[in-house]
Write a structure and sequence with these properties.
Elements: E1 13-16, E2 23-26, H1 35-48, E3 50-53, H2 60-68, E4 93-96, E5 99-100, E6 103-104, E7 107-108, E8 113-116, E9 128-135, E10 143-147, H3 148-153, H4 157-163, E11 167-171, E12 195-199, E13 201-203, E14 210-212, E15 221-222, H5 227-241, E16 247-250, E17 257-261, E18 265-269, E19 279-285
The structure holds N-oxalylglycine and manganese (II) ion.
Residues 116, 118, 176, 267 line the site of manganese (II) ion.
Amino acid sequence: MNAPTPTAGSTLTVVPSGRLLGAEIRGVDLRSLAGADFASIQRAWNEHSVLLFRGQQLTDDDLIAFSRRFGELDWAPIQETGRRFVEGHPEIYVVSNVIVNGQPIGSLGAGEATWHTDMSYLEAPPKASMLYALEVPPSGGATYFCGMYEAYDALPDALKRRIEGRMLKHDGTYNSGGFVRQGVTAVDDPMTSPGVYHPLVCTHPETRRRVLYLGRRRNAYVQGLTLAESEALLDDLWPLATRDEFTWHNEWKVGDVVLWDNRCTMHRRDPFDPNSRRVMHRTQIKGETRPTA
Ligand code: OGA
Ligand code: MN
């Protein structure tokens, strides 16, 4: 695909990361974005799957307004504390280790968040998530993204044949920080744990490219196989799918916004010093369709 043609008066540039996915969009203020620039951003997003915008200064309303340009927003899932969302902004999910009056203000703590797709235990998972950095630790806490088009394309043919037509259960028990979701009883048997089945190989509704759709490893189960066969297949797939060459990562600076396509990427987070502060606000854009083969 060609780089978007610059529009008269636009300062927008797309700077690919040099990895297989990821690009930085420079020269835009997300609070006042011209329609032509938004169209360029959408094209770049389809091409690079994950976009980084640095140096933004957004209120929650600004973050919500920019996110809405991509589609209707989900309400944030219930936090680990049982609290639903930021007062007055039900669309904002707080990802933070900060504790105020003995209560975490957000989710995921300071530990590692393992590879996952956001909320793929829903019938129609969010199509995108956007994370905005308000406070970042001096080191650690980087977020990694893995390109699942590339992961699928690179699979050996024999493995492609083993997964063709198969459905995978996406666990609804644990979030990516390993915490049990609100209102759910912990179940550690992949055969019986709550979740939703999606095709293991999906077609992206916009790019029409094929994508390996793994969701998360814990409690995953391939329908129609014995548990041992399912575990063996998933254990073959995961290391191949998350090879370093398919990844790009962001070392956060305050003011960074990262937008990822939740249909064709997974992400994970490095742990960081629990005594430092990390505060991120996230929005999610509703999925318009169920993932389909
Ligand atoms: C998320 C998430 C990782 C991070 O917000 O969905 O996985 O780096 N966050 O905070
Ligand atoms: Mn996530």
